[in-house]
Amino acid sequence: MIREINAAEFEAEVLKSTKPVAVDFYSTECPPCEALASKYHALAEVYGEDIQFIKVYRQGNRELAEKLGVKGSPTVLFYKDGQIVGDRLSGGVKRSALEKNLDQLISAIRAEALKKKIQKKNTECDVLILGGGPAGLTAGIYTAQAKLNTIVVDRALSGGNVAITHQVSNFPGFPKAQPGYLLAHQMTEQAKHAGVQFREAVDVTAANLNTREITIDGVETIRAKKILVATGSSPRALGIKGEEEFKGRGVSYCATCDAKYYEGKHVVVIGGGNSAIEEALFIAKFASAITIVHQFDKLQANRQAQEEAFANPKIRFLFQHEPREFVARNGSGVDGVIVEDLKSTDRVTIDCDGAFIFAGMQPNLDLFTGVFTLDQWGYIAADSEMRTNVPGVFAAGDVISKRFRQITTAVADGTIAAIAIGKDIGN
User: Whole-prediction pTM value?
Assistant: First the structure.
C-alpha cells in the first residue's frame, strides 16, 4: 500500500500519477518520523484505493528535498495533478492533520465512505502516563523496568519544555551545559529501551479518569490500572492587546524556536526570572540589541545568569515597567511594545522587531475540567506519594502544586509516583 521511491522515480510516480499522492520525506534515527510512521501506514490502509502513499528517504535524496524546500524530517507533501496542494506538514504530525489533507484530495462523499473502514481498537495496560516530559519519562522508566506494561501519551513529541530549552546547566551528571533537545532525547531513548510504548503527536479525543481510560485520535481507547497525569505547564499569556493577534508574527514564547529569525535585530524580552534571563542570553547570540522589561526593581533569575546578562553589552534593562500592548504600525508584524512605568503610569513605545514573553507558566489541565482538587493557582493537589483525589490517578511534575518547578523536581516526582504505582499494582 506504501511505496518507497528515489529521486529518479519522483516525476513518474508523483508528478505524473493518475491518483492524488501523499509523500512522506523521512530520515533514519528520527523520533518524529517514528511517531508519524504508524499513522501514515494506518491511513494508507484506509485511503490507499484512492490515494497513492509514497515514502522518500530524505538523507539519500537531498537534492530533490532541497528543490522542494523540504528542510526537516518528517515532511509530508500532498500532490494532485502534479501540483502541491494543501498543507505542508512537518515535525510532530498529527493524524487529524493528515486526515484533513487526505480528505481534500478526494470528494467529500468518497472521504466519508472511506472513513467507515477505520477500525477502532481497545488497548489494556498497567500504567498509562499522560505527558512525555521529565516527570512522565522518569515514571515510565521506573514502571517499565518493574515489568509493568507502560504507555506514554503526549499531544506533542516527548521531552516537554526541556526539548525547546536552549541549554540545561544544572541537571546532575553533566559537567557542561546540555542542549535541552539532547537531554530530552536521551530521556526518551532510555524510556524506550526500558520498554515504554509511546503514542506521540496525538489528539486526546476523550478522557474518563474515573474509569481510567482515554481515547486518542478517535480511534484507540486505552484503559489502564493506574494513570499518571504529567501534562506539565505552558507559557502564561499576558492577556494584553495584540498578543494573540501577532502570535507567530513578532510575538514568541520560545527562544530556541524563533531566536534565529532575529539576526541583527532589536528584541524585547518580557520577564525577569530564570527563563527570561537565560533565554535572553541565547537570543543575544542572534539579536543586535535586547531590552528586558521587568515589573520589579530587580531580577529573580539565578545569580550566574544575572551576572552574564548585566555583563552583556547587547542587553539593557527597563525595571518597574509592564507591557500594555503589542503594536504593528507597518502592518506586517510587531514593531513596537507599549510599556507603562509602574511608578508614574507614563507610557512609552519601545521600537523593536519582535518580543519574547517569559511571564511564568500555567498547568495543562484543559482535558480535566472539574476533575481534580486544585490549589489557588490551578495546579493539582497531590499528596506525598503523588496521589490525587481521584482513585487510581496520580499526578507529577509541573502540573502539581509545589513551590519549585525544575527538571530535577519533576524527575523526583515521577520517581515517587512510579514507586507508589508499582506498590499499588503489586498489592
Answer: 0.86
